[in-house]
Design a protein that fits this description.
Layout: H1 10-19, H2 25-37, H3 50-57, E1 67-73, E2 79-84, E3 90-98, E4 101-105, E5 109-111, E6 126-129, H4 132-146, E7 157-160, H5 170-181, E8 193-197, H6 201-210, E9 214-218, H7 224-230, H8 233-236, H9 239-253, E10 259-265, H10 273-282, E11 289-294, H11 308-320, E12 324-327, H12 345-350
Helix pairs in contact: 1-2, 4-5, 10-11
């Protein structure tokens, strides 16, 4: 068995094509487009001269797409896909339609090492990183599943907000992004891709230096003390240091909406008026958009979803301070597809646990 061609980044393949296989830039791009743009399932389906394909297939195989182990439609049209990888591990991807557009939430790891206390995925710990082929494969698989279904809008946005911390798997995520955004690859607009992080500062700096995707930073605490209580990453990369760098970076870029801030609201813990005031002070002078995310319950969680009045009051307080703030509508909560709810369903079944969510009020 050969290595998978699909794990090569765009630049990695172009260098290989020139130095190892003697292909011109145009020839290399054609093969890249056949595999990623047209989606050829095997080398026999790649439309290129036989001598070129013979050289490449002697060194590389094409990766199979993840298999759909299960799909679960939610009442709001969201579809959660449990995708099986070659080693029998599974990850979850979520298709989220909205009128004429649709967002795909994809995973970057099996499990997660960040151990955010409110997140269901964090309870798994990190099992392994996904390869570039497995990351891009989620997009290709779900696109194939939904295309042609009447009333289903095509994929218009991608968010790296599924299982895992994308920047903990930075090399593979960057390779996947190069495949997704290259005009000779999938050709997906970089500005329609958002990568979420808990705040791994060196990796953030590299991501924003090497790509033009959008970044979403998870805050989830209005001050360092409350953030540390639910996000251990605060010890390694203090939020004040991360925000100081964003302030400086934004000033040089002049783009006030490249970074978004995600704030999971935990009932009784970070949703009070005093918390809103702390958050206003924390983000003073930092341009960007704040997304408020009312907590989505999952089995075994001690946290509560805040009531609507608290969410609206928090939102109003931030708006009054001049902040660019939105309340994110939770999608797919009835099938555990919402933010913070993703987890390997087959592992829960094996332990005899319910795969359905707790009743949420």
């Amino acid at each position: 068995m050969h290595p998978y061609f699909d794990n090569l980044s765009r630049d990695g393949w172009l260098e290989e094509a020139r130095s190892r296989f003697g292909l011109t830039l145009a020839q290399a791009r054609r093969i890249f487009r056949e595999v990623h743009g047209r989606g050829a399932p095997d080398w026999d389906a790649v439309e290129a001269p036989a001598w070129q394909i013979a050289r490449v297939r002697a060194a590389y195989d094409l990766a199979p797409l993840p298999a759909v182990a299960e799909s679960r439609p939610a009442e709001d049209g969201t579809i959660k896909y449990l995708l099986r990888l070659e080693d029998d591990r599974t990850v979850e991807a979520v298709y989220i339609p909205d009128d004429t557009r649709a967002t795909l939430c994809i995973s970057s790891q099996v499990g997660c090492a960040m151990a955010c206390d409110f997140c269901f995925t964090g309870k798994m710990g990190l099992i392994r990183h996904l390869t570039p082929a497995e990351i891009v494969g989620q997009f290709k698989r779900v696109r194939r599943e939904v295309e042609g279904i009447p009333g289903i809008p095509p994929l218009t946005n991608i968010v790296f907000m599924g299982m895992g911390e994308p920047l903990h798997n930075l090399d593979h995520v960057l390779a996947a992004l190069s495949i997704l955004t290259d005009d000779f690859g999938v050709g997906f607009p970089a500005r329609r891709i958002t990568v979420s992080t808990s705040g791994l500062l060196p990796a953030m700096q590299r991501l924003l230096a090497e790509t033009t995707v959008r970044l979403a930073l998870s805050l989830n605490g209005p001050n360092p003390e409350k953030r540390l209580a639910v996000m251990p990453v605060e010890k390694a990369w203090p939020i004040r240091d991360v925000l100081a760098w964003i302030r400086e970076w934004s000033a040089t870029r002049g783009n006030h909406h490249t970074v978004m801030f995600e704030y999971v609201m935990l009932g009784g813990l970070n949703d009070a008026a005093a918390d809103a005031d702390d958050l206003i002070r924390l983000l003073e002078g930092v341009p960007g958009r704040v997304n408020l995310i009312p907590f989505n319950a999952h089995p075994g969680s001690p946290y509560l979803r805040p009531d609507d009045a608290a969410v609206l009051a928090f939102h109003a307080r931030l708006r009054a301070a001049g902040m660019h703030v939105f309340i994110r509508k939770s999608r797919g909560r009835d099938v555990l597809a919402a933010c913070g709810q993703l987890h390997q369903e087959n592992r829960r079944r094996a332990r005899g646990e319910s795969i359905f969510p707790l009743r949420q009020t």
